[in-house]
């Protein structure tokens, strides 16, 4: 199982990245042996990954980062580097590789102060002699100042620095930046490709894999979650029951509160699993004495860790809410399909009764308005509107009648 196996239905992108990783490895190997560098190379210093949510642009960038850091002795044999098991691959995928720096937006924008250290690091040589990789997961959230900081770094990168930028579409990135990047667009993988991956890679029963893939419409992570996590299935079932419950104002407000609470609970659970352990590991790494007293001058490091954990909590809550909104969108799309007389494309085959009832109760126009209300809620959350306010506005707009 290599790092490329996680890229579902992206054969073209995998081939381009694999070839680049092979040439990148040849370059590193030649330099280390003091041999002349290859004259041509398919390796590039800046890449832009675009594609719809769930197609796996972050995974593609991570897989490529891992392949560039792969130190398996067999990496040059046969296929592309990226064994998935060596220390380089493993830590790059996990996010703990010293020469892979990931930047993700916390709120609506990536601020220039959040990019300053990263840009500085991009001008330094990698610690392990391979590649200094900077991964920007939400390049569309770079504001003018932070984008300019990145632009300077991308224009004149250090010899071993690689920028990997991810964004929903090419239009989301400043023209000056995208003109300096090699662009790769990922497609939404087919339902069959996702189901096949769940069977092959995660050992999911074929029937359950097909259900999960269809319900999530080519969103790889969500499909895997749904197929392997009973709690995720319960959550989805509860979300799909919401539309029928929204008959009066009180019910809409309660439903909004439930959605927001469930997302907050997800974030809390993840924090409980990880925060304490990370803090202990960090203290041990800093050489804390018995009883937890930290050596002088290391308090800042702990503060950074706490900031990161806080950002992660906000992000988890947002992501979790986004999953529910995605399920609702698919649900109303199904309602619309029924209203327009097409039963073939139904994603939520397990909720057909509810779909039928709502399809009969309204018109295609009212369904479209509801789909727009969900999209508006997502936009509001992206702009950091208080989650409860945004979700209440949505559930009110979804109200039947
Ligand atoms: Zn490897």
TrEMBL record:
Highest taxon, organism lineage: Bacteria
GO molecular function: 3'-5' exonuclease activity; DNA-directed DNA polymerase activity
A Pfam family that the UniProt record links to this protein: DNA_pol3_delta2
Family annotation (NCBIfam families): holB, PRK07940.1
InterPro entries (alphabetical): DNA_pol_HolB (IPR004622), DNA_Rep/Repair_Clamp_Loader (IPR050238), P-loop_NTPase (IPR027417)
Name of the protein: DNA polymerase III subunit delta
Residue ranges that the Swiss-Prot or TrEMBL entry lists as coiled coil: 253-280
Keywords, alphabetical: Coiled coil
GO BP of this protein: DNA-templated DNA replication
